[in-house]
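Sample pair:
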Amino acid sequence: MADMHEQEFNAKQRLEEGVSLLDLVEKCPKVDGEYRIDEIKNHNVYLYDTGTSWTDVRPKRRVSQVCKRISAIVEERTGVNPEIRGSGLSQSLALAVNALPAMAREIQERPEVAEIFRSLSLKIQPVARTTSHDAGMTRNGGSAVSDQDDVTAETVATDLRNYSNVIVEGVAGCGKSHLLEDLAEVYEGRVEVVVFHPSTSYEDFVSGLRPQLDGSFKGEAGVFVDMCERACNDPERDYLLFVDEINRANTSRVFGDLMLVLEASKRVDLSDEAEPERTALLADSSEGAIALQTLVSLDNGSVRKYLRVPRNLHILGTMNTTDRSVGTIDLALRRRFHWITMEPLSGEQLASELEEEGAGVDSLRPLIDWYSETNRRLKEAVGPDARLGHSYFFGEGKSAADIATGLLNQLKEVVATFNIKTADVDSIIGDGAPVGDERWRIHLVGQGLGRRPEIQKVPATESSDADGQGASQGAGSEETSTTAQG
């Protein structure tokens, strides 16, 4: 962190290095420009509240609320009102760095103030002084991971307008794919959907040779090039390419050299160009264009070799963090996307959502409580990616048995994926999912590689006996730990 005012952060530093606000104040008081607070990693911080006491900010409090409290501290101590830029929790709060040195004296004279800033683990990135589309982005067009407490179509659409490329990640059933329905309304139908799978290739996505009826081959555009053309022809409105399960394909191979023109700084704005010039495919090289691996043949017989990506084309990918059988996204591509983590609803949030939907919350309360407690235990024993999604609770005419079946089927996959011990399975699910007078549990059949989780239904009165039996079975079996394999 030494001599921060004399150097610029590179992409890797911005993505991987946590920078404390105290370091900002003490070590780079003369930095030109501004830095965006992108993520508060530690919510257990103490902030000045009444002038006479220090109040604990609860971990459950939203990031936006914590940011507002930080803003209040800076304003109170400096008389400067930190400017809030953009919108949505993912953008968090922007503070002018030249306002922070006024805090230095307070930090030096009051240990409590110094401790506050020392406890805030922040990630920062320069605010680009270009167009609004580039605001808040790193030089390479990407950003650090952002956790949002309330991910909606509106907040995601805001991030797409600011970052162009966004990936929403989360466990199965947390509502990632459901975003598509709401985003289709936001974009007024200007949406194209593609599902990636292990066989998806550059030729499918961008351009490739296609067999013709006469036995010849012709270079044709893929879905990405088609969407570029649509967006170029209508530069005043935004278009969305929705990529479901983006990490199921070999993304480095699928995107290929597109990674260069995906960056916001390399995209083109065609709103001022004449209508005949509004095209994504070009015959000759141009600024902001990249050569295609396969030439695209047009209906008039001409061919196009170069592609440019318009600024009004947004890319949204979804990613299941529970699935360990798929590939990962390398850093080169990862840093070109803004990342949002979609969390499963808590028990209280779920009950509130169900009440708004008009569902019978009272009858589902025992199952909601079990879901909430099971997720807490899964997070502690295995990790956040092992938690259950809340989508099973939604849908017309769903009974407690329908919901429990969905939850336990997902739990079966979690047990198999993370290779959880029998004893740990029993402690995680407790008495089991309450369905009427029964408790539904996960029962492990077999040993070693042949072990298979199955749903077991027992009377509620026998659930305690089942706990004891499961624990004794777990003690006598040879099994691996709860950590993910591979």
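The chain has three domains: 4-126, 145-342, 347-475.
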